[in-house]
C-alpha cells in the first residue's frame, strides 16, 4: 500500500495527461531526423526531413515535408499525416501516424509509411512502392 502510494507520488501527475505536440526535432530508430514547425489552427504544418537511409548512390539531402494534424490542440494523442518530397531521388513518401505520451511524459510518434518511386513503365509498377514503420522520439 505504501509502496503504491510512493510510486504514485513520484510519477508527475501532468505527464499522464500531457498533450502531444508535433512541433520540434524528432529522430527515428534508424537515425533519421525530422523537424516539424508550428502547426497552425487548421492543423497544417511544414518542416524538413533528413533521412539516414536511402536506396540510392546520390548524396542525401534535407527534404521538405508538408502535413496535417487532426484536431490540433484538442486531442491528447492526435493523428497526423505528412509527405516528404525527396530532393535527391524521384520518389515521395507519405507517413501517417499518431502521437503518444507515456507515463513519464516521453513523446513518441508511431508511424507507417509508403514510399513511391518513379518507374519508367506500367509493367514495373510492382516494384515501385515500399512500405514500413518508424517510431520517432523527441530530441528537443
TrEMBL record:
Annotated signal sequence range: 1-17
SUPFAM superfamilies: Avidin/streptavidin
Keyword set includes Transit peptide: no
UniProt entry keywords in alphabetical sequence: Biotin, Disulfide bond, Glycoprotein, Secreted, Signal
Cited Gene3D superfamilies: Avidin-like
Cysteines paired by S-S bonds: 20-99
InterPro entries xref list: Avidin, Avidin-like_sf, Avidin/str, Avidin/Streptavidin-rel
Cellular component terms (Gene Ontology): extracellular region
Subcellular location: Secreted
Molecular-function annotations in GO: biotin binding
Predominant place of localization: secreted
Pfam families in UniProt: Avidin
Function: Forms a strong non-covalent specific complex with biotin.
Membership in a protein family: Belongs to the avidin/streptavidin family.
Subunit structure: Homotetramer.
Protein name, per record: Avidin
Organism from which the protein derives: Rhagologus leucostigma
Gene name linked to the record: Avd_0
Amino acid at each position: 500500500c505504501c509502496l503504491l502510494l510512493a510510486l504514485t507520488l513520484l510519477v508527475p501527475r501532468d505527464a499522464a495527461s500531457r498533450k502531444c505536440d508535433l512541433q520540434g526535432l524528432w529522430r527515428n530508430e534508424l537515425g533519421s531526423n525530422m523537424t516539424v514547425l508550428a502547426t497552425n489552427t487548421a492543423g497544417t504544418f511544414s518542416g524538413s526531413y533528413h533521412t539516414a537511409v536511402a536506396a540510392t548512390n546520390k548524396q542525401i539531402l534535407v527534404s521538405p515535408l508538408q502535413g496535417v494534424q487532426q484536431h490540433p490542440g484538442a486531442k491528447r494523442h492526435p493523428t497526423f499525416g505528412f509527405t516528404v518530397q525527396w530532393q535527391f531521388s524521384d520518389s515521395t513518401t507519405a507517413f501517417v501516424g499518431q502521437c503518444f505520451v507515456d507515463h513519464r511524459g516521453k513523446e513518441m510518434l508511431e508511424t507507417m509509411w509508403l514510399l513511391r518511386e518513379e518507374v519508367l513503365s506500367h509493367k514495373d509498377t510492382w516494384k515501385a512502392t515500399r512500405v514500413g514503420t518508424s517510431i520517432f522520439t523527441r530530441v528537443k
